Amino acid sequence: MTKKLVIFDCDGVLVDSEPIANTLLCEAINALGYPITIAQTRAQFVGRSMSDVMQLITQLTGATLPAGWLDQLQAQTYAAFEKQLAPVAHIACILEQLIENRHPICVASSGSPEKIALSLRCTNLAAFFGDAVFSASMVARGKPHPDLFLHAAREMGARPADCIVVEDSLPGVTAARAAGMTVFAYAADPDADGDALHAAGGRLFHDMRELPKLIA
What we know:
alpha/beta, Rossmann fold, 6-stranded parallel β-sheet, DNA polymerase, domain 1
């Protein structure tokens, strides 16, 4: 029997980056003169590519982002990752189990290649994936469109029906279901909207140690 390809999102699934990144994004948007809370930031932007995030911010504020805005935000985020970023609880052990059970694994993230590489390096997860890392910058449309997951499946030589996606965001779950893939929605975050993830087609779980049994 062909082993299922397991496709992991990065932020919030492999690395505990959402609190860091969304706090800094919230501060950067407020600095533009547009009041927004961290909860609103998470609800509107989590799971989307940075190009989509910038477009949405422009629509919300009605103003063009100042020159260097993204560069400054990325510099702050990357510096914070270097100091604070940690892996999601138990994820290293789970990746080891999947590899031992001969499941191919890869990453498909809305982040830029540089951000993904930094995140995996800072949390000592890079060796699990090697070159099997795919970014929304590699496809025409990011999540919630299926392009990225379909691209990852093609590159890994897997049919969509033989893929399992591990996601934590509504755009990610929506994209994976649109690609015809099974989706397990990791909802350990207290701020996760489990009802929305479930309604979008995600099979909810709350502890990464549950994943091998769910896949089996």
